[in-house]
Design goal:
With 344 residues, this protein is α/β, with parallel strands linked by helices. The chain has three domains: 40 residues, no CATH class; 140 residues, Rossmann fold (3-Layer(aba) Sandwich), CATH 3.40.50; 137 residues, Rossmann fold. The strands form three sheets. Strands 2-1-3-4-5-11 form a six-stranded parallel sheet, with helices on both faces. The protein is elongated and about 75 Å long.
């Protein structure tokens, strides 16, 4: 069978020796079809890479002009900016986007990928969930030559194009800034280290300490899910450290803001007692008291670059198969939360 064309219900029916109507009903989980037959149909459909024909009018060209986007959260200024960037590139080229939301769950990410595959998207742009370790749910796209681009949260094992920043350098820069403010006991609060963004920020933090001959204490690296509860608990753990740390680098702004408020509620002065730096330049960083020092990288630009690269590939302008990693710039934005030495 020619795998370059779309698999149809007629192909499945022919292989199983049943009618196309039976296949159609089985794929719709119609109770008139026995569980045994439904199972055979569904398994063969998955094996052959069948996609539900929800856009029949486009079958001749096998193009839907739809791009799928999978993101791990929606309450982040960075992610909403990235989506806006993708949408700008898509709209300019007469594409539309469909968004799948994993809610930081690998299970939901798999479901979102499956749904977008069956929506017959022409390409996929994804930022991985907190706990994704297996990328096999993207195989159906790759097997159908549907291009996949990962952005921000990526997996280095994937051969797909990636759009990222240098998280190692950014982590180093944030830590070095705290050291230059006189900090010597710097805690790092980070997320799941299977994610490139957190592992590389940690590595940058560690190297900055080493380069300044500052001993790394295991207790000073706090790894959690960066949720509200975990952020408050991290701050409480810091409050029980003796001697008290004099600096904190947190891998996410909202978590940094929550840590900072918990410390302030306990009578800690920011930055006089503990200097704080975050990451992402989310809107919260500009409304904390004091305002939060952070690493800024442009979500809109990252989304626009990912979207444009995907569309250029689809239109034959460039070839993603020869593009590995696109690294964008980031910068340290210094605000009052870290300025132990004051402005100067």
């Amino acid at each position: 069978m020619n795998q370059d064309r779309e698999i149809t219900i007629y192909d499945i029916a022919g292989q199983l020796g049943v009618s196309p109507a039976t296949v159609s009903r089985a794929l719709k989980n119609n109770p008139s079809i026995s569980a045994f037959t439904r199972s055979k149909v569904v398994n063969l459909a998955a094996e052959l890479g069948y996609r539900h024909n929800t856009f029949a009018s486009n079958l001749r060209t096998q193009r839907t002009n739809i791009i799928g986007v999978i993101v791990h959260e929606l309450n982040s200024n960075f992610i909403t900016s990235a989506i806006a960037g993708i949408e700008k590139a898509a709209t300019k080229a007469n594409y539309t986007i469909i968004i799948g939301h994993s809610s930081e769950s690998a299970v939901k990410e798999v479901a979102a990928a499956k749904n977008l595959f069956h929506k017959r998207v022409d390409g996929l742009i994804a930022s991985l969930a907190y706990d994704t370790t297996d990328l096999s749910h993207f195989n159906s796209f790759i097997e159908k030559n549907i291009p996949v681009i990962f952005f921000d949260r990526v997996d280095e094992r994937s051969n797909s194009t990636k759009v990222i920043i240098n998280n190692y350098k950014a982590g180093y820069t944030a830590t070095q800034h705290l050291i230059e403010q006189g900090c010597k006991r710097i805690v790092h609060v980070t997320g799941n280290l299977i994610r490139n963004v957190y592992a590389e920020r940690l590595a940058g933090y560690q190297q900055a300490l080493a380069d300044n001959n500052i001993t790394l204490h295991e207790d000073y690296v706090i790894t959690n899910d960066l949720s509200e509860e975990a952020s408050v608990q991290a701050a409480k753990k810091i409050l029980h450290m003796h001697p008290l740390p004099d600096g904190i680098f947190v891998a996410k702004d909202i978590s940094a803001a929550l840590c900072m408020q918990t410390l302030k509620d306990a009578g800690i002065r920011i930055p006089q007692d503990i200097a704080v730096a975050g990451f992402n330049n989310d809107a919260v960083s500009r409304v904390t008291d004091p305002k939060l020092t952070t690493i800024n990288y442009n979500g809109f630009t990252m989304g626009e670059v990912a979207g444009q690269k995907l569309i250029d590939h689809l239109n034959g302008v460039t070839d993603l198969n020869i593009t590995s990693t696109i690294t964008l710039k980031s910068e340290l934005i210094i605000r009052a939360s870290s300025l132990k030495k004051g402005k100067g």
